[in-house]
Predict the structure.
Amino acid sequence: MKIPYSWLAELVEQIPSPAQLAEILTMLGFEVEEIASPGEAIKDVVIGKILQKDPHPDADKLSFCQVTDGETTYPIVCGASNMVAGDHVALARLGTVLPGDFKIEKRKIRGVESQGMMCSTRELGLDDEHGGIMILDRNTPLGKPLVDVLGLNDVIFDLNVTPNRPDALCAIGIAREIAAYCKTQLKRPDASPLPADCAPEFSPSVTLQAEDLCPRYTALRINSVQISPSPDWLKNRLEACGVRSVNNVVDATNLVLLETGQPLHAFDYNKLEENRIVVRQAQPGEHIVCIDGDDRQLSEEMLVIADAAVPVAAAGVMGGLESEVDNATIDILLESAYFSPPSIRRTSKKLQLSSDASYRFERGVDLEGVIPAAWRCARLIRELAGGKIAGQMTVADTTKPEMLDVLRGRTIGLSLDYAARLLGKKIEPDHIAGILIGLSFKVESQDTESIQVRVPSFRNDVRRPADLVEEIARCTGYGEFAPTLPKAPVKAPEPMEVDRKFITQLRQFLISSGLDEAVTYSFIDKEALTLFPTGGADLEHDTVTIQNAIVSNEATMRTSVLASLMVAARRNFAHGNQDFGLFEIARSYAVLDGAKTETKVLAGLIMGNPHSGWRNTRKEQDFFELKGMIETILQIGGYRGYRSTDPPACLHPKRGCQIQAGKDCVGYYGELNPPLVEHYDLKGRILVFELDLKVLSDQFRASSVQYKPFSTFPAMKRDMALLIPKDVAVDHIEKIIRRESGNLLEEVVLFDYYSGKQVQPGYVSGAFRLTFRSPEGTLKEEVVDQAFANVLSQLQKKLQVQLRS
């Protein structure tokens, strides 16, 4: 938004210099994107008068003029022909530098010395026209700088106003902020009502049909206007703000928009059918030719301003060509209204049409500023166009007073302790009240602990106490507040339920094993949960249910993540994917003993062979490959001792198991029961697993790896071939070997396992290789022999294991 310094100076008493003002505006939250001085490049050009014009003695197309600035006369050779003696012109004297770095110097032109230059508007950089030199009014004082005459001796601020501050999209809004910061007075233009000049009983006809989209509409008739060009001061002000001058009436509406932030529109009253205004939504098939000349199709959700027959304006966006004010206009109808911001935004986007009015309406204008802006504009029109106020202003309000109450502002209480906590500094109550009053807030009550404030209608962005604190900080100056750390109790962070490093290692291992990570919904059909272990929860009573479920039959929070993966597997298989592996790290939910619980689990599923290809032609993976994967996961979790028990019902009775570690149930894994495979419309062997990550993570933390340096001494290996009773588990043998070998045992490996005719009934043959190594020196034979003998003795004693001959 562009705004000239001179305009702000008219509205604010004792305004700071432009450089200081730029800093203040930035501190207040209005970024100054550019500071322009439009007359800087021609500041040395003055008003001159042609005293005498003669033909050039040696050139037919040149003239020789005597030009004075009121003190000195300059001989000037000129090639233009549109001037005569007595004309006032733009004079560039010797030493003047014009735009384009063109310096005026003495020079001879066809033998005649020229000591200056009479300039065209193109040479001054004012426009691209080059029809001759610039001719000014003959009453213009000689020697006066041209920039003063043209109103170019100003400083123009280009401000970036944030979308939440529509109140600052006008001169008064910015001036109000400056006055509050500088603790000075704001001078408002007169916007009081005017008495009727004729027919005081007359009021324009306004019908408010779409009152939800337009809660207030005002109309004022002004008769006997004389349409003409605007005076120079008005043209210059509009041009400084980037607005093109049209005529005195339209320019008056644009000036009030830039001054107050309230858009207005003037209709030619005699072009309105039945001289009526109807505020309604567009009807099917309606269209309108806007002021820009384009014919636009309207849709039914758009708000329009219509007469008795057709739309005459796209409400809040642009007026219609048929009812615009032109040189033949005598009577006008002045519109000022409040339109619903979302409605204007939709219309503007759909019509692909934006205007200064829509820019403000779609951000929200001031309801209480609608009527004063209309009277301010009426005063200007009467002054500029000689109009007469015909009758009374029509004010059409919604029949829903609560809509107006919402737009009239709100009352907010502010605790001074709360303000001090946010600012890091205590502010005196009177200082706070002074700032808020300067910003046009009304202080309803205050004491030493709090202040009660009525927010004005134009500050719709202030809705809570923190917003009031921001106003205090802005107008006090952020530099007045030293950085302070917030005071908050500090306590040690609670340990994570599942170790993050453990999760990372699991994810890396599973991905390297050919599985893809899946992300499924946490809610599922309750019937699907009955097919999988529920962790002790009763599905009839102990489930967490979603009240606003997306799908009615998927309202139960899952008690098994594997149940969700099965749905994903069915979808993959239905789309022709027959070789894949999925895993998911997620939560399962249940109600145990009346309390809602969440358990983080790892679930996985393998169908076919994820590694299938020309180098791996196996049709599908088997139970033992899954067993190896689970053992690696348990090893990552730090489990060395665990046992396998009977599988849950969802697994094959002979190719599945449940994992127990002490009193903890770690989970289960194996081949999916064939009836379940059919239930999910799958084929082949489906390998699945589901593990409790909380249990695994606790063990992972407890058994964190302790690193020690490698031994540089040689190892000694001994093989031990044993006859083992069939009911003895191999891991029991490994435990005894490790315990009895002490710190010298580095590794124990089962490298042979056999059962058959060569082994006596009731026994199997197992061969172990034991590796011994000392970190302190080379081992001696007798030391290793003694350890070997101790191991063998304990195996024979406790497990009835025999040494094979």
Summary: The chain is about 25% helix and 30% strand. The two ends are 101 Å apart (CA to CA). The chain has a mean pLDDT of 90.
